[in-house]
Amino acid sequence: MADSLLQRHRAVLPTWISLYYDEPIQLVHGEGRYVFDADGRRYLDFFGGILTTMVGHAVPEVVDAIAEQAGRIIHSSTLYLIEPMVELAERLAGQSGIPDAKVFFTTSGTEANDAALLLASSYRRSNQVIAIKNSYHGRSFTQISVTGNRNWSPSSFSPLAVSWLQGGSRLRGPLAGLTDAEYLARGKADLEDVLMTTTSGDVAAIIAEPIQGVGGFCLPPDGYFGELQKILAPHGILYISDEVQTGFGRTGEHFWGYEAQGVQPDMITFAKGVGNGMALAGVIARGEIMDSLGASSISTFGGSPVAASAGVATFDYLMRHQLQQNALQRGAELRQGLEEAAAGNPSIGEIRGKGLMLGVEFVEGPNLDPAPKLANEALEHAKRRGLLIGKGGLFGNVLRIAPPLSVTQEEMNEAIAIFKEVLGGTQV
Predict the structure, then answer these.
(1) Long-range contact list for 391-394, CB < 8 A, 24+ apart?
(2) CB 210 within 8 A of CB 254
(3) How far apart are CA 353 and CA 170, in angstroms?
């Protein structure tokens, strides 16, 4: 059946929709942190549908909220009042740290970032944007223009004038070997130079991920973007924090990734885990920015009754069960386990990230060249042992590990035991 479905997939879907594994699997059922394939095999899910199944599979509170709302009305559009959408907006605005916050809902992180840049360009009357190298913000025509990763940018055409700041790996390239203080000094000098040389007139905004997701969980020193914002603020340049992967307590230490950076964002974009798998995303912005559009707009599907009900239930479950604190505790256990597993393996160049958002980068040779083949072998090995993880980075040489925030200590111990086998055995 799996072979037949794969053939059908290849016949009718684009070749650029990639599938994991030499023998792709179909996931048909989930319970908590476990998923089951079409053959009935159970896997411990440590990627959560790309950081999306945030509180676990088939969580009764979320399932019941979806079913109850679907039993009443599934869709109406934003032309009508939607109580679950208002309830979720109230929760997110209150948690955002943005004064006078308002929320606009979309169906994906791509669309959320589109909306944020539309708001910024409208509010500032400028299409100039500053973005970060090695970033990923979505797959739309607008978002590939601010995505600093060539693997995800099929076109050089752009509706935006984009200037780039250095970002990404600290193992190689311009950031290699820098101390945190040197990294900060270089970043500030880089930004000053960009403002002087590659922009003209008023820049609308900077868009940045606190931790680069698709880019392989690369991150700057704490406080880095806050120092950059001090340079941007006198120019009126807006700060957009892309929290699609870092939001809702995944880093453990804070609810939003921007908080470790000392930033006061003008806008936050969110998606992924907010609906625990439902198509739900959006923008939180200062009221004057959100209200600045000079044309009418709606969202046919964004914030739909069913998706918003899932969002409310997910948010309440997250807060009631203190999953941010769980991410901090389980994340510390995971990091220690990964470091122990990687000890003595020269093919592992770095373990990085925060909370339950950790990356393992595979390298080879004295120059720490990327080793995507080794990363893929580790991905396959983990699958054979019943553990699902992700992969990313500019060269595809980074394992991305991000279990649901509800992962238990027992499940973490199970995963660490597998990682010790996988990382200890995957090397040049």
Answers:
(1) 391/20, 392/213, 392/214, 392/215, 392/216, 392/217, 392/359, 393/169, 393/215, 393/216, 393/359, 393/361, 394/134, 394/149, 394/150, 394/151, 394/168, 394/169, 394/215, 394/216, 394/370
(2) no
(3) 13
Q: Which residues contact 53 (CB under 8 A, 6 or more apart)?
A: 30, 45, 273, 276, 277, 404
Assess contact for 318 and 405: CB atoms under 8 A: yes
Give the global pTM: 0.96
Q: Write the pLDDT tens digit of every residue in 27-81.
A: 999 999 999 999 999 999 999 999 999 999 999 999 999 999 999 999 999 999 9
Average pLDDT on 94-109 reads 97
SS (HEC) of the chain: CHHHHHHHHHHHCCCCCCCCCCCCCCEEEEEECEEEECCCCEEEECCHHHHCCCCCECCHHHHHHHHHHHHHCCCCCCCCCCHHHHHHHHHHHHHHCCCCEEEEEECCHHHHHHHHHHHHHHHHCCCEEEEEECCCCCCCCCHHHHCECHHHCCCCCCCCEEEEECCCCCCCHHHCCCCHHHHHHHHHHHHHHHHHHCCCCCCCEEEECCCECCCCCECCCCCHHHHHHHHHHHHCCEEEEECCCCCCCCCCCCCCHHHHHCCCCCEEEECHHHHCCCCCEEEEEEHHHHCCCCCCCCCCCCCCHHHHHHHHHHHHHHHHCCHHHHHHHHHHHHHHHHHHHHCCCCCEEEEEEECCEEEEEEEECCCCEECHHHHHHHHHHHHHCCEECEEECCCCCEEEECCCCCCCHHHHHHHHHHHHHHHHHCCC
